[in-house]
Amino acid sequence: MTESKRKLREYLLGVIYFFPFQLFLAHLKRNHIILFFWLFAIGLISKVIAVKYGVPQLLLYPEYLGEVNFLSHVILGLAVGSFFMAFNVSSYIINGFRFPFIATLSKPFLKYNLNNFILPAVFYGLYVYHLVDHQLNHELLLVSEVAANLTGFIIGNMIFSVLSMLYFINTNKSIFKILNIPIDFDSKKYKPIQYLIEPDLKWYQFLKRKSEWKIETYIAGDLRIRRARSSKHYKKETLKRVFQQNHLNASLFEIGGIFSIFLLGWFMEVPFFEIPAGASIFLLLSMLLMFSGALHNWLKGWSILGFIVIFLLLNEFSKHDVFRIQSHAYGLNYDVVKDYNNEELQELNYSDVLKRQSFSEEVNRLRKIQSQLGNDKKLVFVNTSGGGLRSAMWTFHVLQMADSLMKGQVFKHTALITGASGGMIGSAYYRELYLRNQLLSDQKPVDKIRTNQISKDLLNPLAFAWVVNDFFLRYRRVTYNNKQYYRDRGYYFEQKLLENTEQVLDVPVSYYDGFVHNGIIPEILLTPTVSNDGRKLIISSINTSFLHLNSRDFSSRMAHIDFRSFFRNQNADSLRYTSALRMNATFPYVLPGVSLPSNPRIEVMDAGVRDNFGMEISMQYMHAMKEYLDTGVQKIALIRIIDHQDSIRIQNEPNTSLIKSFSSPVGSVYNNLFNFQRLNQEGTFSLISDELKDKVEIFSFTLKTRNDNEIPLSWHLSARDKQQIRNAIYEEVNESEMRRLISFIGNGQSK
Predict the structure, then answer these.
(1) What does the pLDDT read at residue 320?
(2) In which domain, by residue range, is 385 found?
(3) Which residues pair with 84 in a beta bridge?
(4) Are residues 450 and 502 in contact, defined by beta-carbon separation less than 8 angstroms?
(5) How far apart are CA 374 and CA 84, in angstroms?
(6) Tens of pLDDT, residues 713-744
(7) What is the spatial distance between Cα 417 and Cα 424, in angstroms, rounded to a whole number?
(8) Lowest CB count within 10 Å: 11, 402, 514, 548, which one?
(9) Residues 347 and 386 both lie in one domain
């Protein structure tokens, strides 16, 4: 063997038996659960996982006390530091015995952490890169602001690392402390090639492991490479005492982490304790990581089976009401239960007399709207799509701009608003402000400040509540209208929505009845979906039994359930309006499904599951009211406010891999859910008569974005997202539609 080959061989083997590299291999070979946590965290910060929900933004732009600043990044850095320490603790508990030489070192846990740097270093580098990129390019911060935030993040990380290290330095013992013998600090400094391994050892033998892994060198406390001591001359019982004592201290650290989660949950309504949601996510990951490490240590090779058994037990327990706390709608009486079955629905099946009475009431409402317009016989219907906060802001912005350009005439002409999720939240907020403008002369006019209000973050309290409250047994209650309900992330969603909208929506659903019936404000139909059978639950200020007119098939199947009629004895009129909006916007996983007081229990989900664009219910309304609309209305403007590209995207090569070929049947149905609804809109439009079709003119306002700047379906918007939404109204196609609408209404002037 030539000298150069020998040196190359020695160098490669030196790398292989270097303690940090051996630890990395140990994780790859044995610690797959730990690796899962790292991959999951990397997926979050890299915007690969949970992008549609906006979760990565919580980790890259932390908010504390309503501000994103140096302090919020310090707190985030502390939480990331806890995640790093949780990794080191779990790794030490699982792998420590495989490397007995560390028991012969002073401050063994510190040395272990120092050499266990590869995964944290890779993650930290990626985190810093994505944090800076997001804040510069998405939040549009100045370089100086990003630098200050990054400094806070690094300082927070360092503070936690130093404090935790001080704890372990003062509590962990080496074999020298156990045996009460002096520590030999005169060990030889290792030189990279010298004294490495036996010359006849093959390079591939490092793969053939027993419980103890061979280590030749490690990084010492002074950051120099040193040769590892042999532990063979120590008794196994002595080495075991070292690891047991260190494991005890690690367990105390785990208990402290769990206690901190419970502490935050108990004081979560105190603003000081409402830490950034990104920080709470890392605290949860830290706790789960330490728990998985402890479980792995207890069960050893049975750990995977143990996780499966625990999952099955939790699944079984969750079937029982004792362990499954339901999410309630505030204002309803859950002490009185309504039977929900086909027989009960048939009894609710409206008689022709009731349908005609409901029809007459609706005709009177429309006439009152028209009476305020003089000889103008036009009406406006608004359809708005679901889509989280982007849809709420876009809908509010379009209505605001239209009314501003047409001097308030759009809402005066509007009879009905339908849609889903965020779009209806934006509509409800605008309607309430419009009502206050009509009733209160001292009320500030609707302006750009209100657009900023509706676009404020809702995701941070949601994620924080999920981590520190919903993930555990929910035990705290809130009193509303003398009724007690459990607090969950749905409650905190409503509280934050009320805070963002100046508390103006904190009213019962019945509050709007008189204003709607007198034609002062338009009717909003909220249509959450009943997950039990797919029916629509209609929450409104009007009796909707007339919707079953002109369709006997509709009537027999009861595709719609009038919420306030069905739950009359459960105080349906007292339902909090924000709870109704939440029921209409219950996107899976983000908000908890709302349970209603019925037997069997009705659970509702997002209206967008059935009708994300509001088109179906508005066409059914026109079909039911055609007798009056054919004769009493001159023209109808159907304003469609869509929060994303209206055209259907065609996916190239949908089955590009073996895995995709298996997931495609289910995935394509989910991904194309809204495409199915778009394609069905033409069929829905055919419900109305040809005479009525000639009266309908459609105006579409679309929030268009480039593929690389797509706004996530989330309850959080970045500064760039908000800027895109504000500017979208000035797109040529939207300006053209606005000019058409101005011409249709016949008031105001184009810009």
Answers:
(1) 66
(2) 338-646+666-745
(3) none
(4) no
(5) 70
(6) 788 888 888 999 999 999 999 999 999 999 99
(7) 8
(8) 514
(9) yes
Q: Is there a contact between 274 and 464 (Cβ–Cβ < 8 Å)?
A: yes
* CA dihedral over 380, 525, 730, 706, signed as positive or negative: negative
**Helix and strand totals (H; E) in the chain:** 32, 17
Together in a domain, 241 and 344? no
- DSSP3 helix / strand / coil % (the chain, rounded to 5): 60, 10, 30
5's torsion region: left (phi>0), alpha (psi -120 to 50) or beta?
Answer: alpha
HEC states along 652-681? CCCCCCHHHHHHHHHHHHHHCHHHHHHHHH
Q: Are 353 and 605 in contact (CB under 8 A)?
A: no
Residue 146 lies in a domain: yes
Residues facing residue 538 across a β-bridge: 562
Measure the CA–CA gap between 104 and 38, rounded to whole angstroms.
30
Cis peptide before 62 (omega within 30 of 0): no
Tokens of 367: 């006439």
350-378 pLDDT, tens digit per residue, is 677 888 899 999 999 999 999 998 888 89
* Tokens coding 652: 């190239």
Count the domains in the chain.
2
291 shares a domain with 436? no
Return the structure tokens found at 252: 């105390």
Residues 257 and 401 in one domain: no
Which parts of 335-387 fold into alpha helices (H)? 342-348, 352-371
Strands 594-596 and 327-328 turn out to be parallel
* Residue 259 three-state SS: helix
Q: Tell whether 657 is covered by a domain.
A: no
Tokens of 11: 């160098």
Q: Is the pLDDT of residue 167 over 60?
A: yes
Any idea how long the chain is?
Answer: 751
Provide the percentage of residues in the chain whose pLDDT is more than 70: 78
Q: Is the per-residue pLDDT at 3 higher than 80?
A: no
In the structure encoding, which two tokens stand for residue 566, read together? Answer: 């069905």
Phi, psi of 700 (to 5 degrees): -115, 125
Same domain, 562 and 481: yes
Per-residue pLDDT reduced to its tens digit, 68-95: 999 999 999 999 999 998 898 888 877 7
Rounded to whole angstroms, the Cα distance separating 553 from 544 reads 17
Question: Token digits for 391?
Answer: 């849809």
344 phi/psi in degrees, rounded to 5: -65, -40
E strand or H helix at 227, and its extent? strand 225-227
- Closest by Cα among 103, 106, 302, 108 to 212: 103
326 part of a folded domain: no
The owner of tokens 């792998």 is 95
Contact at 8 Å (CB) between 17 and 214? yes
Question: Comparing 269 with 321, which gets the higher pLDDT?
Answer: 269
Half-sphere exposure of 680 (CA within 13 A, CB side): 15
Residues 349 and 313 occupy one common structural domain: no
353 with 305, same domain? Answer: no
Instruction: Give a yes or no: residue 480 inside a domain.
Output: yes
- Given its phi and psi angles, is residue 433 left (phi above 0), alpha (psi -120 to 50 degrees) or beta? alpha
Given pLDDT bands bounded at 50, 70 and 90, which one contains residue 556?
A: very low
Q: How far apart are CA 508 and CA 499, in angstroms?
A: 17
Cα 465 versus chain centre, distance? 11
More confident residue, 25 or 644: 25
Q: Are residues 503 and 431 in the same domain?
A: yes
Assign residue 503 the CATH number of its domain.
3.40.1090
Can you tell me the distance from the alpha carbon of 228 to that of 215, in angstroms, rounded to the nearest whole number?
Answer: 7
